[in-house]
Amino acid sequence: MSSAAGRWACWLAVSLALSRSVASLELDELFGFGAEAGDEALEPGSDSTAELPLRNASILFFSDSFSKVYINTNGFVSGAKPPAKADYLGKMPAEFKMIAALLGDLDNSDGQGKVYFREDSSPDVLARATEHIRQAFPRDDDVDPTSTFIVTWENMAARGTTGRGDVLDRKRNTFQLVVASMESASYAILLYPRDGLQYLSTSIGGANKPLEAGFNQGMVQGWFYASQGTYYRTTTDEETSIRELTEKTNSGRHGVWVYEIGTTPVFIAITPGMTAKLFTEENVTKPAVTSSPQQPGQQQEFSTSETTTVFAQEEEETFTTVVFAYNLETCANNRQKCSAFADCRDYTNGYCCHCRPGYYGNGKDCVAEGKPQRMNGKVNGRVFVGNSPSPVEFSNNDLHSYVVANDGRAYVAISSIPDSLGPSLQPLSSLGGIIGWAFALEQPGFQNGFSLIGGEFFRQAEVTFQPGNERLTIKQQFKGIDEHDHLVVSSELDGRVPDVPRGASVHIEPYKEIYQYSSNLISSSSNREYTVSLPDGGVQTRSYQWRQTISFQSCVHNEATRAVPPTQQLSVDQIFVMYDAGNQLIRFAMSNRIGGEGSPDTSLSQNPCFTGRHGCDNNAVCRPGEGLQFSCECTAGFTGDGRSCYDIDECRETPQVCGANAVCSNQPGTFRCQCASGFVFASDGRTCVAESRPVDHCQRGSHDCDAPDRARCSYVGGSAYVCSCLPGFLGDGRVCQDVDECRQDRCHRDAICSNTQGSFVCQCQPGFHGNGFQCSPTTTEYSNLCNHKDEHPSAASASSSNTGLFSFFRPRPAVGQYVPQCDERGSYEPTQCHGSIGQCWCVDAAGQEIPNTRTGPGSRPLCIEQTVTPPPVGPTPRPDISPAPPGTHLLFAQSGKIELVPLQGDGMKKDEAKALLHIPDRVVIGVAYDCVEKMVYWTDITGPAISKASLNGGDTIPVESPEGIAIDHVARLMFWTDSMRDTVEVAKLDGSQRRVLFDSDLVNPRPITTNPAYGRIYWADWNRDGPKIEMSNMDGTDRTVLVKDDLTLPNGLTYDPDNQQLCWADAGTRKVECMDPHRRLRRTVAEGVQYPFALVSHGRNLYYTDWRREAVVAVDRFSEKETDEFLPQKRSRLYGVTMTPAQCPQAYNYCSNNGGCSHLCLPRLGGFTCRCPDNSTAAAAAAAAAGRCEETNQ
Fold first, then answer.
1. Which residues, 6+ apart, have CB-to-CB distance to 572 below 8 Å?
2. Where is the NIDO domain (predicted)?
């Protein structure tokens, strides 16, 4: 037969063998054994041992090498002569090294059972062993064993069952162990044929114990004492795991199991095969067959191509592993598939995406160098804990992670984990730690995961815990970077974990993990040790073995650019784990560095850029220089000196960056383009083209509804629309007529009603005051009190009295020595001064001096007008709120109303400004906004009260007391200052559960702001003798003075979470300043401002209200210049200012679900506190008295 025909016959044989492999392993498919194979036989008995010298090659087992092994009746091979079976049966792990093929109390003394063994280096045996190993480890191309030894246990009985004449007497087990070795590694091949395992347990000590299989390290000698090493069990205490030895596989063939059991020079862990699915006949790529013309009398010949047969895995799991795929197309039609920060390049057989300078990734996903990275996703699972027969199941639990890329520190949090599972997940720091590998701090010449493969990949990890052999599978699908620049992941957990008692803490030792890289596949494995500190003071040391594979799709057309080292080492230290039972939250934190395997420290590797010990901003990249020199450079999308970096507003600086028909939205470090209404992205993913859909006549203005001030056009799909009259009008929507509400007696009986188009207004009659809906007789208690002071000496005397300590040292002049300042209504001006002594002070509506407001020569106090706004000339609108249009707006308070100014980017759309809320007879001071419920909150000193109203329209809802106010939208809390009570207080957003946080060392507290992500509040006190800005946790702990120098009247205060800047406006120094509250870096943004009152941050701008200019002023924080000004139509003092973002800023703290507290949950940095409200109300006092409120620190 010709060589070609021989190859064909060989292929047919291989195909038949592979098609047969779909079924389980048969007895006749074991490696050859018996006398005809050259085997030796073990002496019959129930505990016989024989020594087998290994003359051809030693075996590597764990970290040791053995030139001889010992074969035992009871289903194992050991590295030393084993003791009597009573010392190890039922007492695993044993003190000696053991390969347990199937350990139990076995017996072959009846002569039916045999134990055969031999060393074999014949080519056919080596070839077959190599085939099994390569199928189990398809990435290992260099497998070339030089020797094997084979042990076969045939027809072994369970001890005590022979000669009984019952069914147990007839049950026999047959199994085989093949250990293949080469210079650098040894592999164990375990074969369990179908019908080869007829019993699953043996009697040990009078009790049935399941058989077990695995690899035992025995005692390991440490520096001072020996300890029990790893016992890697491949079965569990359940008999089903024994039966599955014949039904499952890790090498592509049922009944065949392959493990890497030893390596040199470094051993990491026992490593199981990676191929859990069968190889089928359909998976085989058949060689191409061609025929040549057949001559008479000549046998027909066939030739095959030289293509190597390819085996493919069948994937049965439903877990999606979709990744992007390159094809034979060009950039012309695929440029939109690249990142916005990448270039597309054409190659001979296709195209590739390449990140631009300053960015890194695989071209499909690119992120700016040095930029912090966030990861969000969901976690689903079904996990058994300890010996529990029932699993803990959970779904759609939130996973959030954050990495400081320029120092490799990663933080991970998973929410809603019940306390029946949470403590036991603490050892699994790598559940979210893969983001640490993806964005690890890169050492010279090495790249982290994201640099190599981007953000679309599939990761599967197998965890085996010791000593209990519990196993857990982790599957994670990474879906790339979303529109918010967050890496998106979905996770799935399945299996069993050892029990960690509630209240126990876990400490994980630093570890190193070797990552091996090949085309489209990355794998790693490691041993990890952890310590469990029990609530009773006991300490347990445990470990687990970790093996993971990462599959991805790379661009194959430009492999020259992929000079990836075959191995890299991930070093992980500073590991922190915590389960927060009250909040059902598990947290991990760790520092990650990627470098070479065992690479020595060099002067370059000690550079601060590679150790992470630099002072660069979180949004900066560290550039190494000579020796220990380095420089900080703000990452793309930020500007600054590298030590402090600030976001660039690309939308403002390059207005056309998004092109025509598109809207630009600035984000930290980047921007987003969205097509305007009626437009969609074209195939290039960037150009906005008109959307092909039915006409929206309402938007076009081509409808026939009545005028917009009388009717509303509503688009209902297709080209249809509906006309409807606005409130205050009647009709069919095409013709609408005004309703005269005054005929409906809508005003108070002592008010005059005036009808207007679509509405009406009410005005109290002369001699009455109020809002027209409620009118009361006018009192003359304070009317013209100031002008009649000379006629009422008693009033003057009362107003000159002062019992405060300050007045004891600064006596006020007697009556008649000064002339009080009066306004045009005859009321006292809020600020009174006496020129002869050079002092000023604040007074209330009766002229009484307000304590602690007196100033010395050359300065004036910041006094708020205490008298209510007089009724305007003419009717006033109703005291309710008008619905606000969608988008981001500025809100500011002015006397008896709150006005709205829409924002476009960082610019004010001044022509669209309008009154949002009318509050007659009130002085509104502070304004805050809850982005969750779209609710406006304001403080009113004339009440005094805190009130709220929906931004979507509706009546106001009363709450409680003023001056500055701030909202924590995550914990659902409001905080405020009270300058009369000198307090900082907190309550729920409905005003309930009120509690005083601080009532000491406060004189004139006014502005207050929150940082929900850190659980912090900041406030300012414009105490003339010692102005200051303070900070504390939201639970009142860690109160700290942040700023006390160069302050005079710190009025406005705001916190910018994107840039982590606390900014304030000072009416005394006439400056606007900012500082990083963490590093205490302070800088001036604007000087020479007039008289700022309140301040808010948005984008690159700070907006403040100014009393003297009676305007809202915009200042660019980065250029440090005034950029815009808004002057309301009605000119008067402006008070509080806030903004209404279109979406809530992303933040998380421990009280997002009230932390399990019975009443108040108050966040703090790293935890939270459960607190009871003050007993200031009957309900609060009753709850406390009944013991229903519990205070705890978490």
1. 429, 433, 436, 510, 511, 512, 513, 590, 591, 592
2. 101-264
Q: Which long-range contacts (CB under 8 A, 24 or more apart) does 1171-1177 make?
A: 1171/995, 1171/1035, 1172/995, 1173/987, 1173/992, 1173/993, 1173/994, 1173/995, 1174/994, 1174/995, 1174/996, 1176/994, 1177/994
Closest-CA residue to 758 (of 736, 773, 778, 785): 736
Nearest CA to 866 among 847, 844, 848? 844
Q: What does the buried/exposed string (b/e) look like for 336-360 if buried means 16 or more CB atoms within 10 Å of the residue's CB?
A: ebbbebbebbeeeebbbbbbeeebb
Asked if the domains at 372-599 and 888-1144 fall in one CATH topology, the answer is no
Identify the residue whose tokens are 């008649």.
816
| Residues in Cβ contact with 567 at an 8 Å cutoff, skipping those fewer than 6 apart | 514, 515, 516, 517, 596, 597
Q: Can you name the residues that pair with 259 across neighbouring β-strands?
A: 188, 272
What is the CATH T-level fold of the domain 651-690, as seen in this structure?
Laminin (2.10.25)
Main-chain phi, psi angles of 795, to 5 degrees: -65, -40
The dihedral through the CA atoms of 595, 596, 602, 603 has a sign that is: negative
Domain ranges for the chain, please list them: 35-161+169-272, 372-599, 651-690, 888-1144
Structure tokens at 226: 């020996």
* Per-residue pLDDT band at 298 (split at 50, 70, 90): very low
Amino acid at 941: I
Q: How crowded is the C-beta side of 994, counted as CA atoms within 13 Å?
A: 18
| Closest CA relative to residue 1150, chosen from 618, 584, 772 | 584
Q: How far apart are CA 1007 and CA 965, in angstroms?
A: 7
For residue 361, give both structure tokens.
């990734």
How far apart (Å, rounded) are the C-alpha atoms in residues 71 and 117?
A: 8
- Asked if 817 contacts 834 with a C-beta cutoff of 8 angstroms, the reply is yes
> 508 with 577: CB under 8 angstroms?
yes
Contact 613, 620 (CB under 8 A): no
What CATH number is given for 372-599 in this structure? Answer: 2.40.155.10
For the four alpha carbons of 19, 20, 24 and 29, in that order, the dihedral sign comes to negative
Whole-structure pTM value: 0.40
- Give the angle subtended at the CA of 617 by the CAs of 614 and 618, to the nearest 5°: 100
Q: Is 991 left (phi over 0), alpha (psi -120 to 50) or beta?
A: left
What's the burial of 636, exposed, middle or buried (CB within 10 Å: 0-12/13-18/19+)? buried
CB atoms within 10 A of CB 661: 15
Helix H or strand E encompassing 390: none
Cβ pair 249, 265 in contact under 8 A: no
Half-sphere exposure of 150 (CA within 13 A, CB side): 24
Distance CA 148, CA 123 (A): 11
CB 1019 within 8 A of CB 1033: no
> Which of 61-65, 294-298, 300-304 shows the lowest per-residue confidence on average (mean pLDDT)?
300-304
Strand partners, 1008: 1019
SS3 label, residue 455: coil
Q: 1069, 1057, 1126: which is closest to 1097 by C-alpha?
A: 1057
Residue 78: both structure tokens together: 């050991």
Overall fold of domain 888-1144: Neuraminidase (2.120.10)
Q: Residue for token digits 């000339």?
A: 873
Q: Look at residue 289 and tell me whether its pLDDT is greater than 70.
A: no
Mean pLDDT value of segment 1140-1164: 84
- The pLDDT tens digits for 1016-1073 are 999 999 887 889 999 999 999 999 999 999 998 898 999 998 888 999 999 889 999 9
CB 632 within 8 A of CB 617: yes
Which residue has tokens 């041992």? Answer: 49
